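Please discuss these two lines.
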Amino acid sequence: MLQGPLRSAGVFTLLVLTRSAVGQVHVDGPMRMTATDSTQRTIEGIDTPVTDTDLITMGVSRSGSVNWGMASGSASAIQLTLDPPASRYAEGLVVRFLPTQSSAGAITLNVDGLGPRDLLGRERLPLQLGDLVAGQIAEARYTDSVFVFVPHPVSGCPEGYVAANDHLCVQVDDGPSMSFFNASHYCTGRGARLCTWDEYIHACVVLGPQLTGLFNEWEWIDDTSDHTHTADQVGRWQCISQRSVGAVEHPNNYGEVRCCYRLP
């Protein structure tokens, strides 16, 4: 419903179906309400938008519903369904969603079937552990052909990690057996990294029984020795166990992996 005297700088068309009280307004220029009473200068009865070019009310804007997406897909390839759907990837498009899985590393967003786009984090690097958390609202903004994650304050260690101190989180379960370079990639691909010797010995002594698989096999740390192509492994029989092993890819140079994550 339009109320109050109305003036338009352009062509104004009003179509009214009297019985059903349905109307359409087409204006090709600015529209100005001129009623003396401000309560009469209103447009009422605007419905929920059904396309991304529809007019929205203050209530719809405040609810954030036009930016909310229902998430599906996998941890690394997230699909979002907006209502109303997006017709294109517009610069500055903001989307919010509830991840169904906690994830980090290389992740893509595909909004309304428009095609996957990288979802990047701080400094446009892959997402870190604790960024996308299942059940915790996530927000991203489309810019320069990618979605950039809007970070939120990190509270506590990510899922699957336990705190060794106020800043260090250590993976509870030891990971699979692999080479040094694959172990490093394993951790960085999950938004973490291999533990240093200082971090490992501290966590081993402080946490002990809370870490599963401790002392059942050698584990890689982020350290090398003064030998050609060698890296260090720790924790075979006790916290202080340490040895040097070839870093080149070979089944004899394998070790298990346990990642560390440092809180900001």
